[in-house]
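1st attempt posting a full record on here, be nice pls
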Amino acid sequence: MCAKLKQGFIVDLGPLGTLYPAVSGKWEEDPKDLALADMTPRVNYKGSDDIMAAIKGATLSWATEKDEKEGVETPDDDNSQTGGNGGATGGELEG
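the predicted structure (as tokens):
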């Protein structure tokens, strides 16, 4: 995976999504004013459709400071998922 990213290839992570090599830097109107030293390499991640649907469908809640210190987890009804943000939960967010 690292070798492909170093070569500039997109890496398919299957059901997890995709990694894209990218570069960011200052914008110059004239390409002659650009320097390689001003560019910063990055990796962008795009979640698969399933991952993005799971994120959009997640229930958001506030974690209390006590929850975060204790690593409190609140399982779902089927007891197979523990939630995100370390599993810490609190009151529901209102939109």
